[in-house]
Amino acid sequence: MKACEKNRKPIAWLALGALDAKEAAALRAHLADCDGCRKYFKEVSGATNTLGVATPDADVQAPAHFHRQLMARLRAEKPISAWDGLLAALNWRVAVPAMMVLLLVVLLVLARKPAPTVTSVNPPRVSVVAAVVTVVSDPAPTAVNYQLAAAQSLTKLDELLTKEGNESLPPAPVYTATTKLPDNAF
Q1: 81 lies in some domain
Q2: Which of 36, 82, 91, 130 has the smallest count of CB within 10 Å of its CB?
Q3: Is residue 104 a part of any domain in this protein?
Q4: Are 41 and 73 in contact (CB under 8 A)?
Q5: Does residue 47 lie within any of the structural domains?
Q6: CA 56, 59, 60, 61: dihedral to nearest 10 degrees?
């Protein structure tokens, strides 16, 4: 009689002492009723006990030609290129759809990129004229003067802005509210 197919692995684990107490108790109850599983447990337990008490023999050595043959076989193996290794690692059922998705994304990105516009208008000709810029000691606070100062150097722009920030404001008219309205207001 054979052991139950579903119990073969748990019986081996039981023989090794790798099952928890609840699973071991349930399996031992099954072993009490099933002759095939009980016989299989005795076989596995005997092999486990034999292997557990066996000690390796330190005097055992490989023959002298073993190392040479092993090295010759390793050298004879064709080295796998990185590409072959990658293809071997990837499953084609995963790789093919992934490549298709990647190709679709690339095509979508290229399709969204606007085509460069070509204009046939001749660009205007620019003539370079040397200009002499005279720096006014107190330039008016205008955007053009700020741009000129920045074109000379950022330090000049900073000095101009600091100087203008420290100046006092011109006097402004003072308005007062009165509570008395003229007689003809309404």
Answers
A1: no
A2: 130
A3: no
A4: no
A5: yes
A6: 140
Tell me the mean pLDDT in the region 143-167.
80
Distance CA 3, CA 35 (A): 8
Domain membership flag for residue 108: no
Which domain, by its residues, includes 44? 5-52
- 128-157: average pLDDT: 71
Pick the last residue of a domain from 52, 68, 91. Answer: 52
Question: For the chain, what is the domain count?
Answer: 2
**Among the ranges given (31-45, 129-143, 155-169), the one the predictor scored with the smallest mean pLDDT:** 129-143
Q: What is the pTM of this model?
A: 0.32
Nearest CA to 14 out of 28, 34, 35 is that of: 28
Please report the pLDDT score of residue 25 as a whole number: 92
- For 96-131, what is each residue's pLDDT tens digit? 788 888 999 988 888 776 666 666 666 666 666 655
Average of per-residue pLDDT across 12-29: 89
